[in-house]
Design brief:
The structure is a homodimer of 215-residue chains. In chain A, 64% of the residues lie in helices and 3% in strands. Chain A has 215 residues and is mainly alpha-helical. In chain A, strands 1-2 form a two-stranded antiparallel ribbon. In chain A, a hairpin with a 2-residue loop joins β1 and β2. The structure holds a DNA duplex (30 and 30 nucleotides).
Chain lengths: 215, 215
DNA sequence: CTGGATGGATAGCGGCACTCTCTACTATCT
DNA sequence: AGATAGTAGAGAGTGCCGCTATCCATCCAG
């Protein structure tokens, strides 16, 4: 197919597709003439992935490029690749880290049987966690860390479901892509469902109002 | 205190504080002269809240204004106020909604005993959920909806912990603020912990590598 | 009295994600 | 064969957002 059809089938405007091509988010099509190229279903799939990363995952163009680079690497171990992807889809957070928050994270790791000393700033994920706890402290919620264990309890259930899903619905070829999509879309789904759960609890405790939070 | 000290204590540059004042994110200080104003700890607290919403919650300035407006309303019922805040901190997502995804959401509600017909597009929260499932479908993950029940199971534990936390650590005065902070910071914490759980699972299943995902 | 900070207001900047425009073609329809 | 529409590629332009810089008339501490 040519770029016009790619645009029609994906809903992405032609100039935007050209922009993504320039930015290296999409591989170039096969040139059949100096000004004619063919694109296939793989391009369409990749384009939809890009849109999902941007729209649902909230990633920047540069972030998408990082993720795709990790997805496309073939010579690393799967575990390392997953780690790289996770780093790419995790924003560390910008503020200063409260040392107490760092301690909270370390204590959390130790409670989980993590004996070796963890450098919190070494990974985007742990940095994100510490920076969130830091922010909580800065607005007066010193005890937020007490929630960590409960969160982990709930998230173990969720992570297990994620693993089963990936194992069931993806071959080893696209397991990385499934993890990316599942993680980012899952984040959004989790946000939404958590809000629904809050609304339900608030309705039970405070009464009144319909189930959905639009009033 | 004057603006310089407010800046020093919060780490926010003076021009930025002025900008927030202009945008109505911070209430004006008490003028003691035509060009002298005093700020108190309440301003500091509010400023830190704004930074937390921006940095950790990823809200835009306009979004912060909406949230603060909901936080500051005193004449509505607590339940409605919570709903308003939830709407303010939930981005609906931009793409087209797949009708099948809408059906998935409705089926989910029905499984949860929600008998009345829910208009998915009426609330940012349900719209967010539908749009995430939509995005999943568009990249070929039609079965993502199967995760919803497991997610809810995990999130019930988390929502319960959230409720206990709010009940324990906040008076009725700042219960709304606690919900906002807890929801947004909680979102980030949940993201991070879920990634840690994934890393742990991946390490167990795929072997190799250290616990933290930086490698 | 004086040097640095302040309130208030307006203008400017840098980054990002497109979007527009242009040229030189090519494909297709009639 | 001619008219019309589409295309690759590349640079410039656009609009928004979140600050940041500059200015001026004070004001206040030392």
């Amino acid at each position: 197919m040519r770029v016009g059809e790619l645009s029609k089938r994906s809903g992405v405007p032609v100039p935007t597709i050209k922009y993504y091509l320039r930015e290296g988010l999409l591989p170039a099509g096969v040139l059949t003439s100096p000004n004619q190229a063919h694109y296939d279903d793989e391009h369409l799939r990749r384009l939809r992935l890009v849109r999902a990363l941007v729209d649902v995952g909230g990633l920047s163009i540069a972030g998408v490029r990082d993720v795709l680079a990790a997805v496309d690497t073939h010579d690393e171990s799967l575990h390392n690749k997953l780690g790289a992807v996770q780093e790419a889809i995790s924003h560390p957070g910008s503020g200063e880290l409260d040392p107490l928050a760092v301690e909270d994270v370390q204590a959390f790791f130790e409670r989980q049987g993590e004996t070796e000393c963890v450098d919190v700033t070494e990974s985007n994920v742990t940095h994100m966690l510490a920076s969130a706890l830091s922010a909580a402290r800065s607005v007066g919620h010193d005890q937020f860390r007490d929630l960590l264990d409960s969160y982990l309890e709930g998230l173990k259930i969720i992570a297990q479901a994620d693993l089963d899903y990936v194992a069931r619905h993806s071959s080893s070829d696209d397991i990385i892509e499934a993890m990316v999509v599942g993680t980012l879309i899952g984040d959004t789904v989790i946000k939404a469902v958590r809000r629904l759960a809050h609304a339900q609890v608030s309705r039970e405790v405070l009464g009144g109002g319909p189930a959905d939070p639009a009033s």
